[in-house]
Amino acid sequence: MKKYKHLSVEERQQMTFDWRYRGWTVLELLTEQEVDELNAELDRLRLERNEAEPEKWQEFEPIMHPHKSSEKIEKMFSHPKIVEACEFLMEGDIVGMQTWGYYKPKGELGRDQHQNGFYTGCGHNEIINTALALDNHDPDNGAVWNYEGSHRLPILPMEDNEERKKTNTGNWRSERGISCVMPEGHDFKKIEGYLRKGQVALLHSHVVHGSEPNRDTTRMRRNFLCGYLKQGANFHPGNQMKREPIDIYKLREKHWGE
Ligand SMILES: O=C(O)CCC(=O)C(=O)O
Ligand SMILES: [Fe+2]
């Protein structure tokens, strides 16, 4: 039997249930202090970027692939508990795909409903996107909600909304105005997102999710997002993201000695 170093029996039982019936699962990962350090590092990268090319970047535009410019972020990307969780859920070896620092400042609009598998183009359960909460997330500050059980659907048709596309700011073009169309008469339940700072949500490739605007007048919502692909799976590199397989085991060895 495979030995698990980082996931307890209880965690694995919960994950098995969530992967079958829900389409996402949540794990405890970091302390508040560890998250504060990660926030400081992402802020350093974001401010450096904005200062270098002020005409190009909006203040809180996502930081693409921050692991390429920071050892601390690269270390977090290869966190052994996350690697073990992705292997467990996708039942095999994995490769790293992408990282983002994602910000939703107060007043910012939400993301249209979508399946991540549509963008990455891989098969069912061949990619997991993780969202590490860098603040407390709840419906007031625009947390991610999910349609429970919708990961059992195929990739759904997409609908364009030209008016909503106009609300996209900066370089980020696919955030709003393209949403997937749920089957008529469906009865999937929309489950609001609640994450505590330091928890990480793992999203199935096919689960339908989105987010509402950040209506909170004081609180930001920050996320560290990563993607992990099942080894050997096909994927779209993406015009904007320029995804390429990353040897996550080499990074784990380098940063964690495992
Ligand atoms: O954080 C958000 O609002 C959207 C994130 C998302 O779509 C994802 O993690 O796949
Ligand atoms: Fe998504």
Concise structural overview:
The protein is built from 7 helices and 11 strands.
Write the layout of secondary structure elements.
Layout: H1 9-21, E1 24-28, H2 32-52, E2 63-64, H3 71-77, H4 80-90, E3 94-104, H5 116-120, E4 127-133, E5 144-147, E6 158-160, H6 162-165, E7 178-180, E8 190-191, E9 199-204, E10 209-211, E11 221-230, H7 248-256
Bound molecules: 2-oxoglutaric acid and fe (ii) ion.
Fe (ii) ion (FE2) binds at residues 114, 116, 209.
Descriptive key words:
three-stranded antiparallel sheet, alpha+beta, binds fe (ii) ion, binds 2-oxoglutaric acid, Jelly Rolls, 22% strand
Folded structure, characterized:
This protein is an alpha+beta fold and 258 residues long. The protein has a single domain (23-48, 61-159, 182-256), classed as Jelly Rolls, CATH 2.60.120.620. The protein is built from seven helices and eleven strands. It has helices at 9-21, 32-52, 71-77, 80-90, 116-120, 162-165, 248-256; strands spanning 24-28, 63-64, 94-104, 127-133, 144-147, 158-160, 178-180, 190-191, 199-204, 209-211, 221-230. Strands 1-9-4-11-3-2 form a six-stranded antiparallel beta sheet.
